[in-house]
Amino acid sequence: MRVLVLGGYGAVGSRVVTLLREQGHKALAAGRDAAKADRVVDLRAPDTAATSLRGALADVDVVVNASGVEDPGLVATASREGVAFVDITAGSAYVAAVERLDPAAPVVLSVGLAPGLTGLLATEVHRISPGPIDLALVLGAGERHGPAATDWSYDLLGRRFPDTHGGPPVRNFTRPQTFDLPDLGRRRLYRADFSDQHTLTRELGVPVRTFFALDSTPATAVLPLLTRLPGGRRAPRGLHLPGTDRWWALARAADGSVRWARGRLQSQATAVLTVLAVRNAVGLPPGVHHSPAFLTLADLPEDSGITCGP
Q1: Which residue would you say has higher pLDDT here, 228 or 239?
Q2: Pairing of strands 246-253, 133-139
Q3: What is the pTM of this model?
């Protein structure tokens, strides 16, 4: 396949490009820096981004959006050219906007750790115990993330989102729950507006909630303080927090049944799951698809670096 990777020299995109090339595919890194990009695509201006993308789609089978730019117009542009589109975003509003499109080519969402891997775990748990599910995601505070991922995380501070249990709107990084995570122990996690909980609530037909923390307890303790602080989203970027590059994901049913996964380097795990989605995307019918609808935990390659457990 020929795959155009938007943000192809970023933290996740560069790993997607590497994995695709190792598997024999033609991966083209796209971005606005002509010195780094195989094809120049400038997504900074919303009114010209779609035109810039259209000019880079010649002979492309799949577009991967690892740029952090959440623009449904990019999806529509690729679709009109008959090109499949795979997006690693976790933004709830953007996912909802893409779902309202009627694309003429396959579009794949819920790709990465959360959403993505959390959906595979939740689907497994739901087969065992078809009731409400809580999702836990713990990321290593010590891993260096790209500016798009950092900005997305900061943008959650202070914002509210609909409660999948039908209660009042939830402020990000409030309403804590405790989880027992393998090799990490008992930790307190906080509600966060990852798109997986909304998609899975609809697809599985049961309420699903997502909880988030960093592997560093002190770093996690700052989140509920910043989310209540006026202007918390403008807190300084680039701070190197204490922590490791390890991550954990877990799905827990109301009866205590769990499925979990863990590994190192969130960006690498996201790339592994993205490549899995890319390999399946061109065989899907036109329309919007979420990766848990056609992938399972059994599809993870043995050398993925992702360890799963009951």
Answers
A1: 228
A2: antiparallel
A3: 0.94
